[in-house]
Amino acid sequence: MQSINRTQLFRASCLSLLVTSLSFGIRAGIINKLGIEFQLDKTQLASIVATAFYGFPIAVVIGGFIVDIIGMKRLLVMAFIFHLAGILLTIFATGFWTLYVSTLLIGLANGTVEAACNPLVTALYPESKTTKLNHFHLWFPGGIVIGTLIVLLLNQIGLGWQIQVGIMLLPTLIYGYLFSRLDFPVTERVASGVSTSGMYKALLNPLFIFMFICMIGTAITELFTGQWIDVLLKNVTQNAILILTLDTGVMVIGRAFAKPVLKRVSPQVLLLISTILAATGIYLLSTLTGNSVFFAAIIFGMGVCYFWPTMLGFVNENLPNTGAIGLNLMGGVGMFAVSIYTIFMGRYYDNIVKEAGGSNAFAGQKVLQTTLVIPIVLIVAFAGLVIYMRSRNKTAPLKTAAV
């Protein structure tokens, strides 16, 4: 790896994830404007938002199957092309279908970034996988913070949503240029000599299947709630988009300090604590009003902070033979679950409004209360995981975990 500059590759990876998260933050900030300008109801808006979430799993799963074959560099060139096309088509959108297709392209780009960069980070930092995955993934909430602040600032200035979307072009062009110049390592699975059949066999491990199912719940808890916060809480506070900025800001800080946290608690204990805080946060978001909602946002942000990177890190540390496909199947099922849940909740929201005679005063809070069931179930699941890992570690040979 003498020719591999892992610092520059890691920075370029963070920049590509920044574009991914900017798309989430900016879209969350302009979604109501799009609905008004193009006369779209909540079901249509949910379909558009969900498109990004199912474009992601399509790309991340396909990427997981081919990344060992074509290499991470070619995948990231594809991500750049998808991002560029999706951003431009969004800027020149004329209605539902152009927004739908452009959001799908951005979702494909986002999934391709994740398909390449997650195995890239674990290949670059095999000695500290979960920590570096947390550092990499801090740019997801970081970009959402930047994106929502851009929306707020440009709204105050009076600039349109097209300009807000266009801002994503600059980091897209930069990361495309950086990746085109850098040399890449092979994936960790290829470097370690694990066969393709061995990788697929590892996917049948009950522990992987358990984590695969749990990823559905952690992804919905984190991403559905965050992406729809402006819609769900717009009748609770006049600054709903600031709630997203606040809770994602908490996530940035938490992931930045992942190393000292993971030195004190194991990944499975961290997941249990996180789920308890997330459930508490969603409950408070669904019941509090006014400025007290911002306190709920802090609790929620602390809860979902470590979900995504720690789920990936746990699988890669404890089931390393699952390789890139294991990482990408986890990400894929998470985003796919969010897409389906978002469509379902969009219709549920509209039905609540219809039953209330057109009033949407409490629709968002009811959606949050329904969503609360998911982290409550996860508390039980992760408590069982903690017990299982303690019993397994007592019987397994001692080894140093890569955190």
Topology:
Layout: H1 6-37, H2 42-70, H3 72-91, H4 96-124, H5 129-137, H6 139-157, H7 161-166, H8 169-181, H9 188-192, H10 196-202, H11 206-227, H12 229-232, H13 240-256, H14 258-264, H15 267-287, H16 292-304, H17 307-318, H18 323-355, H19 363-371, H20 373-395
> What is the end-to-end distance?
21 Å
Annotated CATH homologous superfamily: MFS general substrate transporter like domains
| DSSP strand count | 0
Q: Give the helix proportion (percent range).
A: over 70%
Mean pLDDT: 88
Q: Which series of helices and strands comes N to C? A: HHHHHHHHHHHHHHHHHHHH
Largest sheet: none
Please provide a brief summary of the model.
About 80% of the residues lie in helices and about 0% in strands.
Note down, in words, how this protein is organized.
The protein has 403 residues and is mostly helical. It has one domain (6-395): Up-down Bundle (Growth Hormone, Chain: A), CATH 1.20.1250.20. The protein has 20 helices and no strands. α17 runs antiparallel to α18 (323-355). The radius of gyration is 20 Å and the shape is globular. The protein starts with 5 loop residues before the first helix and ends in an 8-residue tail after the last helix. 53% of the residues are buried. The model has no long low-confidence stretch (mean pLDDT 88).
